[in-house]
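input
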Amino acid sequence: MIALRDDETIKKVVRRHWFILLGRTFGLLILLAAPFVLYGFTYGKEVTLGLTSFTISIEPSLLVFFGSLWALIIWLRFFHTWTDHYLDGWIVTDKRIIDIEQFGFFSRQVSSFRMERIQDITIDIHGIIPTLLDFGDIHVQTAGDSQEFVMKGAPNPRRLKELILKESDKYVDMNQKAKFGI
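output
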């Protein structure tokens, strides 16, 4: 759980675009079906290797065992993909941005940076599908030796950029007024 300060409010929670999860899931569905389709095309066919020929036949119990094992492996990979998709994200508050990166099931990195440290925000949208569905990468450069924060596959990146800049400007203006007693 991410702890917020008492005077901090969440403005937006951002996760990757749904199309990225769909693309990864579609690939897993193809991998799930591949051995069964291959089995359907090869079962009972005669194969000739050199001077010998033989018929491919697999015991049904072995097919059930290896098919179940394969489906379990693909299911675990799907669960890993979904967990990574759901637990990665950014939380934009009125004071800072919290970057959450999930690495596997039991490893997570949480970074945050204050709004006044933002120096540059860049948006990368490459390709027809990201342009049509409006998703892309957002790069936020902060002051100091900190790393560049990147949100890959963010939905509505232009609106998110505007929100971050608006909150950053509000925060900087508020601190300037407090500093000079205005």
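quick obs: Residues 22-84 form one domain.
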